[in-house]
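Researcher: Sequence recovery benchmark, item below. Answer with residues only.
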């Protein structure tokens, strides 16, 4: 069974308030598990935020207080190519293509979003759901929330770019520990490991996320965009490449209105008025 457009709009809610875009997972009947339709809608939403001026920061969160996202909703059917009667239900190569066309574009849409993205983790984030949060630029966790690298509990290999992001956050050896043993990672432990920026009482999660997002949304948006891009690039390229790219980013940003405003406000000894361009 697949969802229609109206159902998907409710299961991945989207609105913009005070230049902050809210993307909210809302699939309570499945514990906020992510269906293919939800995944694709979320990818499209993050991609749509690039190059527009209505929003200047993003908050990714979920409804309820227990679950952020436990991973994929496997109860929803997938579409496969027509096949002969004697062909297997799932042919070699199909899961790979499904991941390359589904999960991976979603994770990349967050990493490549030009706006800073804050994950407000309201409950358990497991498997793909954990990686969804970890792809964000900043992570705020409710004190009762937790991460779980759940794959080994099911005899599965981690997916959704988990083996890319986790070693970069905690180091290869710690990443292996978290993925091999698949133990719960409570919020305070996540903070110690560097998997989140801060932990707050559950009732303060949304207000804290909004406070952070408004600070970002009223800041120098192009400087944030280049900073995010450079830090993400620095994880993958050598020193000489990042030096070249940093130099170009500085030059390009110096031509922005906000960079000029930053210099002028400093000279005039006043607070800057950032416009986002």
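Model:
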């Amino acid at each position: 069974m697949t969802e229609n457009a109206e159902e998907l709009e409710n299961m991945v809610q989207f609105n913009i308030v005070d230049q902050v875009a809210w993307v909210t997972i809302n699939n309570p009947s499945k514990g906020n598990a992510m269906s293919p339709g939800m995944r694709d809608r979320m990818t499209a939403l993050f991609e749509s935020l690039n190059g527009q001026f209505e929003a200047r920061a993003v908050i990714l969160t979920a409804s309820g207080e227990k679950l952020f996202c436990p991973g994929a909703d496997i109860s929803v059917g997938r579409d496969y190519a027509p096949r002969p009667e004697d062909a297997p239900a799932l042919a070699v190569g199909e899961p790979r293509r499904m991941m390359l066309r589904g999960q991976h574009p979603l994770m990349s849409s967050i990493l490549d979003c030009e706006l800073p993205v804050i994950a407000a983790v309201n409950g358990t984030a497991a498997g793909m759901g954990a990686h969804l949060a970890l792809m964000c630029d900043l992570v705020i966790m409710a004190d009762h929330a937790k991460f779980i690298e759940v794959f080994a509990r099911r005899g599965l290999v981690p997916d959704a770019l988990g083996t890319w992001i986790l070693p970069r956050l905690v180091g290869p050896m710690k990443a292996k520990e978290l993925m091999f043993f698949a133990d719960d990672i409570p919020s305070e432990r996540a903070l110690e490991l560097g998997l989140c920026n801060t932990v707050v009482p559950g009732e303060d999660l949304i207000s804290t996320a909004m406070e952070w997002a408004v600070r970002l949304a009223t800041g120098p948006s192009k400087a944030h965009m280049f900073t995010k891009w450079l830090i993400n690039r620095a994880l993958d390229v050598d020193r000489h490449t990042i030096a070249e790219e940093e130099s170009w980013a500085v030059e390009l940003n110096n031509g922005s209105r906000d960079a000029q405003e930053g210099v002028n406000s400093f000279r005039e000894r006043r607070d800057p008025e950032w416009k986002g361009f």
